[in-house]
Amino acid sequence: MKKLIFVLFSIFFINIPNFSQCGISLGISTKSQIIFDIYGITKNNIVFGTDFSFGGLNDLDGKKYNNISWNKFPEDIVDEGYYNNSYNFLLGIKINKSFNTYLQKLIFIGKIGYIDNIEYQNRHDSFGILGNSDGNYYIIRRVNGNINFGAEIRCFLDEHFNIGIGYDIGEKFLFKIGFIF
């Protein structure tokens, strides 16, 4: 799997000299993940890109510990759950047709990548030895990984700004705002 991801990201970086336009987007998903992507559009309107999503930012509480075993201090467990991070390769096409006053152009994108599934436990040390000043700490562990795939559609509001919606296995439904240089 790691070799496939390396090959896909290499395709993106090899094509950088062929880009006539480059863009960035920020987004959020229904799973409260932050999404960042960079992409380029060739002279033939082919879109190559990569995106990254990060979850769990609102779920973790306290100081992170890497050296505590998952089964140690079970009496400290307050909350537990899962989140995921994903790394994707984007491939799409840009349609240069003006549909109406507000919809200038469209980009259709397919994506494939990798999802890192991570389990966390928020804990509280009532003695105040572990964690931050109030005894809160957390531990995480990688549970497994999966292939991620999905699709997006983006529409241009003018020559540079675009908005998009999409769906994939890792983030579920997502919304992005982007800018093309």
Explain this structure.
- The protein is mainly β and 181 residues long.
- The chain has one helix and nine strands, in the order αβββββββββ.
- It has an eight-stranded antiparallel barrel.
- It starts with a helix and ends with a strand.
Brief overview:
Helices cover 7% and strands 59% of the residues. The protein has one helix spanning 2-14; strands at residues 19-29, 34-42, 46-54, 63-64, 77-95, 106-124, 136-156, 161-168, 172-180. Strand 7 and strand 8 (161-168) form a beta hairpin.
The percent range for strand residues is over 45%
Q: How far is the first residue's CA from the last residue's CA?
A: 33 Å
What sequence of helices (H) and strands (E) makes up the elements?
HEEEEEEEEE
Contiguous uncertain segments of 5+ residues: none
Please give the radius of gyration in angstroms. 20 Å
